[in-house]
Amino acid sequence: MKSVFFRFFIAIAVLFSQVSLAYAGHLEDIAARGELLVGTTGDYRPMSYYNAETGEYEGIDAELAEILAKSLNVKLVYVPTTWPNLARDVQENKFDVALCGVSRIYERERTMALSKGYCVTGKTVLCCRDKAADYQSLEDINKPEVRIMLNPGGTNEKFVRSRLQNATVIMHEENAEIPGLIAAGEADVMITDTFEAVRYVHMNPALAAPLADKPFTVINKAALMQQGDQPWLNYVNFVLEELEADGTLPQLREKYLR
Predict the structure, then answer these.
(1) Which residues form the signal peptide (predicted)?
(2) Could you tell me the domains of the chain?
(3) What helix, strand, coil percent values describe the chain, rounded to 5?
């Protein structure tokens, strides 16, 4: 009987040691490697956009990534991902945190960890300026003759598939190319966040976002992490709270999102 109990306690000890190793934690891993691995799609102005001319990432999430790495006294290293692969890459621990305009949605919270939100946006329409009067509601867009161009895998596609089922959908892999294609007449509208729509209107006078002040949804943006590492989630939330309190986040929102 003693040997049975002994084997039982040994098994429990091994189990707990394995759990402890499994959740050694991103904070420890980051410190050991001297690098913060940040996943980004690099295709979302003004959140996290890869500028091929400068070789640098730009946007509010790019600045937050730099601040987060600096707070940890480590080097920032970007790990490219895509919207269709984002969830898998997070769950496979290919990077420590994703910062690229990630929306807080229930599907992600159930299987991953989301930080507190730090900027609010919503889905809206981007179209040619000379057609802006034609798109004043979802009903105006939800027609077979309206061509919606979108990239696969993100919340833009989820919104279109659920709310605009009658429209004609054209898939395009490169999100950052879609506004230019809308301006060129390759499609009629793009459904995206107000931040992105307004930024492209500022960049291209041929475009318009006629409903940017009346978005179809309300969405909060957040950092996305692997589920199960509470100290790491707490740390990211702590940094965001400090940046809000000291005025840094309000300044970044003013710089990039207004």
Answers:
(1) 1-24
(2) 2-120+220-257 (3.40.190.10), 123-208 (3.40.190.10)
(3) 45, 25, 30
